[in-house]
Amino acid sequence: MAHKAHSLAGKTALITGSTSGIGLGIAKKLAAQGCNIMLNGFGDYESVLEAITAMDVQVDYHGADMGQPNEIENLMNATANRFGRCDILVNNAGIQHVAPVETFPTERWNAVIAINLSSAFHTSRLALPAMQAANWGRIINIASVHGLVGSAQKSAYVAAKHGIVGLTKVTALENATSGVTCNAICPGWVLTPLVQQQVDARATQMGVSNEESKRSLLAEKEPSLQFTTPEELGDLAVFLCGPASNNIRGVAWQMDGGWSAQ
Ligand code: NAD
Fold first, then answer.
1. Phi, psi of 176, rounded to the nearest 5 degrees
2. Which of 38, 192, 233 to mutate to test ligand 1, by most ligand atoms within 8 A of the CB atom?
3. How many domains would you assign to the chain?
4. Domain hosting residue 196, numbered range
């Protein structure tokens, strides 16, 4: 059997929002460790399915809308039916909306809270019983530096990300004497489609080039002046799944170029 040398060989990882950006980066790194992968997210999933199949692991896709609890239940059932259980749950799907509180559209508020926060409650509550029965599991919540500090115009996102850091701590505590751990990763800027939209808006607003817009975005908040990459975040997720992380519980681990150290 392939990948026997890897400690995660044969485990099943579900990564929500893995058709793009950070989720895709994490899915590829977990597949490289021999994990079977359940993909989720919108857009072109076929090329992602193909790329991960080529890594010699079993892979499937489910298109659940993570804003809809009944669809999340279908996703969790499909994962259990296909692979037996979900050993590694990466709650990554997320959206952004930028506006001041007084004009923030109620429908966008509800969508950001549902997709960025409530979805992680639903996947966790449905994944935990099988993890607890196996006495092994990893839940990794992709929060953000915005789970630790605020930025203007991002009320729903910052509220959801602070919320998921809280959910991470409680989930970790409730399982603290078992082999099930729960931790959050808090990236600063990562140049994914979600952030490119903000770079584009800034370029238009300031009348500058794409490169200048990226430079000024980083300079405002991130002391390293570098984007974190999906590959770096994937390596951190692999570490949090490994045996050295058995007693890392309830942390919110920044990978933010110093943003929150200020
Ligand atoms: P992205 O837009 O590249 O990817 C988001 C993924 O989520 C895509 O696969 C998309 O299809 C999926 N998705 C969106 N809405 C969904 C829904 N309703 N149901 C199912 N899937 C849905 O964004 P990204 O930058 O890779 O963001 C991934 C996560 O990382 C998000 O939770 C985001 O908040 C977080 N994050 C991103 C950054 C950054 O700088 N890019 C920084 C900190 C945290």
1. -65, -25
2. 192
3. 2
4. 191-227
State which of 20, 47, 91 you would mutate to test the pocket of ligand 1, scoring each by most atoms of that ligand within 8 A of its C-beta: 20
User: What is d(CA 50, CA 39) in angstroms, rounded to the nearest whole number?
Assistant: 12
Instruction: Map tokens 């977990």 to a residue.
Output: 30
Kindly state if the Cβ of 91 falls inside 6 Å of ligand 1: no
Tell whether ligand 1 has an atom less than 6 A from the beta carbon of residue 199: no
Closest by CA to 66, choosing from 91, 46, 99, is 91
Of 85, 165, 173, whose CA–CA distance to 127 is shortest?
85
260 in a domain, yes or no?
Answer: no
**Torsion angle of C-alpha atoms 7, 9, 180, 259, degrees rounded to 10:** 70
Per-residue pLDDT in tens (0 to 9) along the chain, 262 residues:
445 567 799 999 999 999 999 999 999 999 999 999 999 999 999 999 999 999 999 999 999 999 999 999 999 999 999 999 999 999 999 999 999 999 999 999 999 999 999 999 999 999 999 999 999 999 999 999 999 999 999 999 999 999 999 999 999 999 999 999 999 999 999 999 989 999 999 999 999 999 999 999 999 999 999 999 999 999 999 999 999 999 999 999 999 999 999 9
The Cα–Cα gap between 76 and 38 comes to 10
Is there a single domain that holds both residue 103 and residue 201?
Answer: no
Q: pTM for the full model?
A: 0.97
